[in-house]
Amino acid sequence: AEGGGLGSGFVYDKQGHIITNYHVVESATDLEVDFPSGLKVRGEVIATDTDSDIAVIKISVSPDQLLPLPLGDSDALQVGNPVVAIGNPFGLSSTMTSGIVSAKGRTMESMRQSPTGNYFTAAGLIQTDAPINPGNSGGPLLDLQGNVIGINRAIQTNSTVIGAEAGNIGIGFAIPINIVKRVVPELISSGSYDYPYLGLSSLDNISLMVMEELGLQDSYGAYITSIVSNGPAEHAWLRAGDQATNIEGLYKGG
After folding, report:
1. Is the pLDDT of residue 73 over 50?
2. pLDDT over 90 at 77, yes or no
3. What is the pLDDT of residue 166?
4. Confidence band for 41, pLDDT divided at 50, 70 and 90
5. Does the annotation count 49 as an active-site position?
6. Which of 18, 61, 160, 211 is surrounded by the most beta carbons within 10 Å?
7. Is 53 known to be catalytic?
8. C-alpha span between 236 and 250 (Å, rounded)
9. Burial classification of residue 242, based on how many CB atoms lie within 10 Å of its CB (0-12 exposed, 13-18 middle, 19 or more buried)
10. Residues 86-113: pLDDT tens digits?
């Protein structure tokens, strides 16, 4: 990357495809891929997905120098399952840290903007307390059988969620491997992956005060706050609220 940068990744197949985070290679102009064996080769980014923050790197080496990691089943994970992260935190290569699955189904902003200027949401993320630090991004999160169940993406700090700029406080996020298994084959074959698009924004964390203002009986699901004009949601007759409430910016009737 311009100015230099570090990240992690893992071998996907014997054809020389390496998986990492998009934000690790986002501004890369000269990409070096280092192996624990001491092998160092140049790599080329052949496809990226800003929705899931995945990038595929291609290297040219003999297949016998490549050891693809087995991919697990992130849907089968349960909160409390032990996990380990392997990566390159602060340049300390081949570092292993351990923890548990703290939660499933977390959301954070993706790296792709919507037509309205907001960022799409990346959903279904795995939360873990396995220490993840700058340089771990793109590395594997594994179960105790050695199967990759996620790609380490970001950490929570005292101020914000970031990809690679602060120290660990015990809250890390990983892209579930089942998303990777769906997206990466398409990235390799066609260079991109198309996600379903609804064309709406919503509240998915509804307080009791908001429930009372909206007249809701419970807080399950999501409450629509805006609809993209002429988008799929509008054509499906989904509607945002248009009646003022006592909370500024909150409208009922959606």
Report:
1. yes
2. yes
3. 59
4. very high
5. no
6. 18
7. yes
8. 22
9. exposed
10. 999 888 888 999 999 999 988 877 777 7
Which single residue is written with the structure tokens 């977390």?
A: 106
Choice between 122 and 213, residue whose per-residue pLDDT is larger: 213
Out of 8, 23, 74, 110, the active site residue is 23
Nearest to 52 by CA among 132, 104, 121, 142: 121
Q: What does the pLDDT average to over 10-18?
A: 97
Q: Tokens for 7? A: 């990240």
Q: Which residues contact 101 (CB under 8 A, 6 or more apart)?
A: 77, 78, 79, 80, 81, 83, 126, 127, 128
Give the predicted TM-score (pTM) of the model: 0.82
Answer yes or no: are the C-beta atoms of 49 and 193 closer than 8 Å: yes
Instruction: Give the strand order in the sheet containing 54-58.
Output: 10-11, 17-20, 54-58, 40-49, 31-34
State how beta strands 119-128 and 54-58 pair.
unpaired
137 is known as an active-site residue: yes
